[in-house]
Design goal:
CATH architecture of the domain at 12-214: Orthogonal Bundle
Oligomer: single chain
CATH topology of the domain at 12-214: Neurolysin, domain 3
Largest sheet: 5 strands, mixed
Number of helices: 29
Radius of gyration: 25 Å
Length: about 725
């Protein structure tokens, strides 16, 4: 998910809060000051579309009727109503039971959920200044509202009674997990705090919500503030036609001459890979790696404050570090196990990475490069080496990955494995004209989900790719309320009269985020907080990374990969080259991911406040994994949205953790057959449909018959 941008349980009482973590890479920051709520709801709620029954297909969000000014009063009304629902639970004269306390709490906040899902989706996928202002205004209110529920002593007293009598309640597995998660979410969010500590906790949580929101908005604004306009064609040697066409169109849209590049993924990464002009590569690299490092949108102080505020919260909760508090709700369970994984991978992959570095250096020298290989040279020379070694590049591959065909192929894989069928529906309201919608059905004709797809970059849309939801899945009173899933990308747009053509990396990105979508669409549980992608953060990437394994398989590519002009199927020798090149620089890529994991843990597994130099600290941490010279004046931390404005704080290791899991699970398909329906059915039944209704290790061992092993990943990557 970048993010994939993915589900995180932050307390069953707050299921609607997951929207923020799933999508925005924004923090836990939901719920509001009652006095302000009462004063600021507004006088025109009767006409607010969020408060009316949805008369849209499948009860989808009526984006065609929602105005920006509808969000703030609806958010405040949602908080007010949830406070009433909480008051009813607390004042219930009957003894606390699972139904009248735990389930009632789980079902509370339905209006707030209805508003927040589309609001935070848009704030990430189609934002504007008005939405950002609303987010700034509502963040402290939502934080206070959240805290007021989590620190409600009478509410927690009822929850505690049910928890203490859990052995005599004869709960099924899902009910027992809901009770466990509810109790632990309150304890982990300060419910046991007393007196001054409770007020300190409330203040810190509110401050953190604003800090993380500011961090994310600064990062987005800093990215949008930079552009490189080049008017001399000769300075753009090496760039493929599709990159030049996109840059020329971007320049024209801005009223500029020549070619314009920015820091969005489809612009920046091809530039760094193909541009022969070293000075321009350095300029772009420094621009990208100094985002929010000083200047108008500086995040240096935000980093310090976020780290120290999280540490203060952890200490209040009885933990020595923030990582300790987070990992209690992860498969890894404790920092030592995270370091164990990172160290094990570093030992296995570093020799390979060092060998790859030598090979790229030698190749660069063979091309007349005599300087020290710097960070802005790596992508360029490693790509030239890759082309030389495998006779393959994006320009050769892209004609076979026309977006419409890729969609059919990716959707078709879900049909083959899980029986899902996708039917376009143009009558469902959308938040932007580029968005498409699909009805999703099971093999027996049962309605499963609505899928929104949003493929191309635009102003106001964050970079990266993610899956989130407009509505989750749950069951109540005999009704199975199905999810509405959103799939957001930033693929290159059609240019120069050509359709949208994807790189191989974009194909794997599509499969990755679609894996999250399948996890959401196959949800089959009673409680929204336990369904779909609402699983432990270090498990949520397994279903998405699993789907990437099909990208290089000839049997899969033959289903859709054909030249957009001639219709010729992708040649076998080209697929063989793609497959052979998949492990190119795999050691370097692993160390890069490990560097992020170590940096994340360095910030969040500290027991003392940080008052030092952010850049110097980061450079020191990076020594273990660094292969190329450090670049002074650059800083990753100030733009590390996953951990400072998202849900991956003390959790970035989860990408490598999940990579171990996905390679392990895919070995079952390699053993039984690439499209083996029995294996897929078991995976659906025992993992994908279960969501967070059981501990992920229980689900994993049920499917695999054992605990995870690193061996399948090493085999896949060719690590001896």
């Amino acid at each position: 998910m970048k993010y994939s941008q993915q589900a995180k349980r932050i307390g069953t009482a707050m299921r609607y809060l997951m929207v923020i973590m799933i999508l925005l890479q924004y923090p836990l920051m939901i719920m509001a000051n009652e006095k302000k709520t009462e004063k600021s709801v507004g006088n025109d709620l009767a006409s607010n579309p969020f408060l009316q029954p949805y008369d849209t297909p499948f009860g989808t969000v009526p984006f065609d009727r929602i105005r920006t000014e509808d969000y703030l009063p609806a958010l405040r009304e949602g908080m007010r109503r949830q406070q009433e629902e909480i008051a009813q639970i607390v004042s219930n004269p009957e003894a606390p039971t699972f139904e009248n306390t735990i389930v009632a709490l789980e079902r509370s906040g339905s209006l707030l959920s209805r508003v927040e899902y589309p609001f935070y989706n848009l704030l990430s996928a189609d934002s504007n200044e008005e939405l950002e202002k609303i987010a700034q205004e509502i963040a402290p209110e939502e934080s206070e509202h959240s805290t007021s529920i989590l620190l409600n002593e009478k509410l927690f007293a009822r929850i505690k009674v049910v928890w203490e009598h859990r052995e005599s309640l004869n709960l099924d597995v899902e009910d027992a997990k809901l009770l466990e998660d509810t109790y632990e979410s309150f304890v982990n969010n300060g419910a046991n705090l007393q007196g001054e500590d409770r007020e300190t906790y409330r203040k810190l949580v509110s401050e953190l919500s604003v800090l993380t929101l500011n961090f994310g908005q600064n990062s987005l604004k800093a990215s949008n503030a930079y552009e490189l306009n080049v008017t001399e064609r000769e300075r753009l040697a090496g760039l493929p036609d599709y990159v030049l066409q996109a840059a020329e169109e971007k320049a024209a849209q801005k009223g500029q001459q020549g070619w314009t590049f920015d820091l969005s993924y489809p612009s920046y990464f091809p530039f760094m890979k193909f541009a022969a002009d070293r000075r321009l590569r350095e300029q772009m690299y420094r621009a990208y790696n100094t985002k929010s490092f000083g200047g108008e949108f500086d995040n240096i102080e935000n980093v310090r404050k976020i780290v120290n505020t999280r540490l203060s919260i952890a200490r209040l909760l009885g933990c020595g570090t923030y990582a300790e508090s987070v990992l209690r709700r992860r498969m890894a369970s404790e920092p030592s196990k995270v370091y164990g994984l990172l160290d094990q991978l570093l030992e296995a992959y570093r020799p390979k990475a060092e060998q790859e570095l030598r090979e790229v250096q030698e190749y660069a020298r063979s091309k007349g490069f005599t300087d020290t290989l710097e960070a802005w040279d790596w992508a360029y020379y490693s790509n030239l080496l890759k082309e030389s070694r495998y006779s393959i590049n994006d320009s050769i591959v892209k004609p076979y990955f026309e977006l419409e065909r890729v969609k059919k192929g990716v959707f078709g894989l879900a049909t083959t494995l899980y029986g899902l069928r996708f039917v376009p529906n143009k009558t469902i309201p959308v938040y932007h004209p580029e968005v498409e919608t699909f009805e999703v059905y099971d093999s027996d004709g049962r309605f499963m989900a609505i899928l929104y797809t949003d493929f191309h970059p635009r102003e106001g849309k964050q970079s990266g790719a993610w899956m989130t939801e407009m509505k989750q899945q749950w069951k109540e009173d005999g009704e199975d309320s199905r999810p509405h899933i959103s799939l957001v990308m930033n693929f290159s747009k059609p240019t120069g009269g050509k359709p949208a053509l994807l790189t191989y990396d974009e194909l794997t990105t599509f499969l990755h985020e679609f894996g999250h979508s399948i996890h959401g669409m196959l949800a089959d549980g009673k409680y929204a907080s336990l369904t779909g992608t609402n699983v432990y953060r270090d498990f949520v990437e397994m279903p998405s990374q699993l789907m990437e394994n099909w990208a290089g398989q000839k049997e899969f590519l033959d289903r859709f990969a054909a030249h957009y002009e001639t219709g010729e199927k992708i040649p076998s020798d080209l697929v063989a080259k793609i497959k052979a090149s998949e492990n190119f620089n795999v050691g370097y890529a692993c160390l890069r991911q490990l560097s992020f994991g170590y940096l994340d843990m360095a910030w969040h597994d500290r027991s003392e406040p940080f008052e030092g130099d952010v850049e110097a600290f980061e450079k020191q941490v990076g020594k273990r994994t660094r292969l190329l010279p450090a670049v002074d004046g650059t800083c990753m931390s100030v733009q590390f949205g996953h951990i400072f404005s998202g849900g991956y704080a003390a959790g970035y290791y989860g990408y490598k953790w999940a990579e171990v899991l996905d390679a392990d699970v895919f070995s079952k398909f390699q053993e039984k057959g690439l499209f083996d329906k029995e294996t897929a059915t078991r995976l659906r039944r025992e993992i994908l449909s279960k969501g967070g209704s059981e501990h992920p290790m229980v689900l994993y061992k049920r499917f695999m018959g054992r605990e995870p092993s690193i061996e399948a990943l090493l085999r896949r990557n060719g690590i001896e």
